[in-house]
Amino acid sequence: SQAEWEQLLTICSAFLFYGMERFVSHVSLNRLVAMNIPQCHLMILLDLVRSKESYQRITNSGIHKSCLRTAIESPTESAMLLSLVGVRSVVANQWYTTLRENAERLDVLSENLLSFGRTTGQIVHILQK
Q1: What range does the record give for the signal peptide (predicted)?
Q2: Which of 57, 72, 92, 109 is such that its CA lies 20 to 30 A from the CA of 121?
Q3: What is the end-to-end Cα distance of the chain in Å, rounded?
């Protein structure tokens, strides 16, 4: 629910979203922009997963969205929006991906953050290769 999203975002120091579609499409945009979440030092968005079913869902829901709303849901605009509400660092997919590719990214992120103690910048560099 929206209340659960808000509660999690306001109390966390790091937030991982691993899901289908776009992160911003799962939260109320009006409520998100009103939030102040400076305690969130890192937000990792492993979204933009697209399947045949999700593509149809996006197409159907996109009919009811304004051009501005659709533009705000893009990766760059989402990162800017999260930055404006206080998130200090955002790691996100730039292009659509598969579930398998995102699972591999999550493995690399987890292993490098937790086991090797690398910084997020070092991990992003590894993921770019």
Answers
A1: none
A2: 72
A3: 36
CA atoms of 57 and 7, how far apart (whole Å): 27
Give the pLDDT score at 25. 81
Look up the pTM and report it.
0.83
Paired tokens of 86: 């206080």
Q: What are the tens digits of pLDDT across the range 35-80?
A: 999 999 999 999 988 777 777 777 777 677 788 777 888 889 999 9
List residues bridging with 20 in a β-sheet: 49
Identify the helix (H) or strand (E) that includes residue 15: strand 14-20
Tell me if 72 sits within 8 A of 24, measured CB to CB: yes
49, 61, 79, 83, 120 from 98: Cα distances, Å = 5, 20, 21, 26, 22
The residue with tokens 């993921």 is: 127
Q: Amino acid identity, residue 92?
A: A
Which helix (H) or strand (E) is 84 found in, with range? Answer: helix 75-84
List the domain boundaries for the chain. Answer: 2-97
